[in-house]
Write a structure and sequence with these properties.
Number of strands: 12
Strand order of the largest sheet: 1-8-9-5
Shape: globular
Number of domains: 2
CATH class of the largest domain: Alpha Beta
Number of helices: 8
Distance between the termini: 27 Å
CATH topology of the largest domain: N-terminal domain of MutM-like DNA repair proteins
Largest sheet: 4 strands, antiparallel
Helix content: 25-40%
Oligomer: single chain
Length: 293
DNA sequence: CCTTGTGTTCTCCG
DNA sequence: CCGGAGAACACAAG
């Protein structure tokens, strides 16, 4: 489940790999992956170049060199963007792979059968959009579309707008649970089910606590926890629980730091009591009823 | 049955 | 009856 740290990792890596490379071919292996007009999608991308890459919440936005269009990519639950270097044509006509690590080839082999779109660049490098469950999408749009899409996202952690005051205001006059607010992309961009639980644990607050019942101290702890957890997760290149891999096909390193996600019924790492697992906002939710109040 | 991100649809409340 | 909030559902495959 790629959330902010995973998507941020992919963005940073792809910036080093595909900027200013001409797109020479696009293979759409599953047309459901392309949202909007497929012909327009192909026409806009073919022959174009990627000028820059940004991330908004869990969405990756590729700015195209033509000066007006953008490629939007959402990985949803099982999407991957995996980059493979091109083949170097050597004397005699045969080719050899550049710089592939054998253990990565094996790791990726199981996901390549879920390739939905393959973009080929002028140097024969390929960007695979793999997506087992076909929830993710790719679509193109212009500047207006980009502005409209970004409008739909709430405050982005690590931006100037993410102040304690702004954060606390989100909770005012809301009747829903803390976790519902953390997961709502229109309010705060980038938090998914894994990090929501980790943030609540670090802050020492129950995820099912009602927004109106959160104290000033709760809000301060949650605010700091978001920044801390996301910073740590990005430094460790994200979390792999089921099938997240970065653009090299490697797993994230934050998985070993998870304190609650996926640990229902196990001992709390802080107090050793058994972690509770409940269903909240339709999502599996793990917390410690002793450490979180 | 379970897993989850998000768009859509339904329901409730004032 | 309207608007908004929040809850519930739909989707997909293993």
């Amino acid at each position: 489940m790629p959330e902010l740290p995973e998507v941020e990792t992919i963005k940073q890596d792809l910036r080093k790999k595909i900027i200013n490379k001409k797109i020479v071919e696009i293979e759409v292996l599953n047309k459901k992956t392309i949202h909007g007009n497929k012909q327009a999608f192909l026409r806009i991308l073919k022959g174009n170049k990627i000028k820059s890459i940004e991330r908004v919440g869990k969405l990756i936005i590729f700015e195209l060199k033509d000066g007006n269009n953008f490629l939007f990519v959402h990985l949803k639950m099982t999407g991957q963007l995996v980059y493979k270097k091109g083949k170097k044509v050597v004397a005699g006509g045969h080719s050899e792979e550049w710089g592939k690590k054998p253990q990565i080839i094996n790791e990726l082999a199981s996901f390549d059968k879920y390739a939905r779109v393959i973009i080929t660049f002028e140097d024969n490098a390929k960007l695979y959009f793999n997506d087992m469950r076909v929830f993710g999408y790719m679509k193109t749009g212009d500047k207006t579309a980009r502005v409209e899409i970004i409008k739909g996202f709430g405050v982005e952690p690590f931006t100037k707008g993410f102040t304690l005051n702004n954060f606390a205001n989100i909770f005012k006059n809301r009747k829903t649970s803390l976790k519902a607010i953390l997961l709502n992309q229109k309010l705060i961009a980038g938090i998914g089910n894994i990090y929501a639980d980790e943030i609540c644990f670090r802050a020492g607050v129950r995820p099912d606590k009602k927004a109106s019942n959160l104290s000033k101290q709760d809000l301060n702890k949650l605010y700091e926890a978001i920044k801390y957890i996301f910073k740590k997760a990005i430094e460790n290149r994200g979390t792999t629980f089921n099938n997240y891999v970065d653009s090299d096909g490697n797993k994230g390193g934050f998985t070993k730091y998870l304190k609650v996600y996926g640990r229902g019924g196990e001992a709390c790492k802080k107090c050793k009591k058994i972690l509770k697992k409940i269903r909240l906002v339709g999502r599996g939710t793990v917390f410690c009823s002793y450490c979180q109040r």
